[in-house]
Amino acid sequence: MSGWSAKRFWKSATVEPCEGGFTVTLDGRAVKTPAKAALVLPTRAMAEAVAAEWQAQGAKIDPTTMPVTRSANAALDKVRAQQAEVAALIAAYGETDLLCYRAKMPEELVARQAAAWDRWLDWADSRYQARLTVTAGVLPVAQPEQAQAALASRVAACDIWELAALHDLVGITGSLVLGLAVAEGEIAAEEAWRLSRIDEDWQIAQWGADEEAAEMAALKREALIHAGRFWILRHTA
Questions:
Q1: CA-to-CA distance for 73 and 161, rounded, in angstroms?
Q2: With contact defined as beta carbons under 8 Å apart, do 75 and 164 qualify?
Q3: What pLDDT was estimated at residue 138?
Q4: How far is the C-alpha of 222 from the C-alpha of 192, rounded, in Å?
Q5: 49, 151, 185 from 147: Cα distances, Å
Q6: How far apart are CA 177 and CA 156, in angstroms?
Q7: Quick check: 2 pLDDT over 50?
Q8: Going by C-beta distance under 8 Å and a sequence separation of 6 or more, which residues neighbour residue 26?
Q9: How far apart are CA 108 and CA 205, in angstroms?
Q10: pLDDT digits (tens, 9 = 90+) for 96-142
């Protein structure tokens, strides 16, 4: 970030129009990314969210309280330099989508998975003409090439901001279908998190929660909800 310091060095963070979108200035000085690129944001809503994070900093700067800034930096410094590769990485989740791998037993878990997940596989088929194959167990199942191609085409159509969000929407849930459902506005990120945790929640109900695992899950949930918000900021004027 531009002028990074452990201590706050500005009084006011403001949004300014610029060529290609909007930027954030700190006492009139434009913020840059860690790679020293211009922080040009696609929507005023995203720029205002970034500015709010800078403005909210206290005497000491805490980067962990600036998720929108971090995601914007990632889009510009990392995704932009390898957009096709990032899209391919995300699309590859369709080959091993969480929703396609079901338990063999007990019956209650099998039924719970079917009730929660089948509708979203149906949705992917209807929305993208991508019917994915379901299997029981963990051994890999080959997915139809047409379905993989259709899902990959949708991902490839995303811009760098969308890919930055989709990377976490898909990676955290383990499901390309759930990630795309959030992106299309069919489901909230919070609900996608719940659906992605059916197996884990079942195990917790049977054996109890592990404190360390619970803390890690909370961090992932927070990151997923942020990714959903970042996608929305990309599409909010």
A1: 10
A2: yes
A3: 87
A4: 12
A5: 36, 6, 21
A6: 15
A7: no
A8: 2, 3, 9, 10, 12, 13, 54
A9: 12
A10: 999 999 999 999 999 999 999 999 999 999 999 999 999 999 899 99
End-to-end CA distance of the chain: 24
Structure tokens at 114: 């079917």
Dist CA 188 CA 186 (whole Å): 7
pTM, full prediction? 0.95
Q: Is 191 exposed, middle or buried (0-12, 13-18, 19+ CB in 10 A)?
A: middle
Q: Mind listing the pLDDT tens digit for each residue in 17-71?
A: 999 999 999 999 999 999 999 999 999 999 999 999 999 999 999 999 999 999 9
Asked whether the beta carbons of 145 and 87 are under 8 A apart, the reply is: no
DSSP for the chain, please give it.
Answer: -TT--SB---S-EEEEEETTEEEEEETTEEPB-TTS-B--BS-HHHHHHHHHHHHT--SB--GGG-HHHHHHHHIIIIIGGGHHHHHHHHHGGGGG-GGGEE-SS-HHHHHHHHHHHHHHHHHHHHHHS--PPPEESSS--PPPHHHHHHHHHHHHT--HHHHHHHHHHHHHHT-HHHHHHHHTTSS-HHHHHHHHTHHHHHHHHHH---HHHHHHHHHHHHHHHHHHHHHHHHT--
Omega within 30 of 0 (cis) for the link into 106: yes
Contact 157, 146 (CB under 8 A): no
Bridge partner residues of 135 (DSSP):
101
> What one-letter code names the amino acid at 140?
P
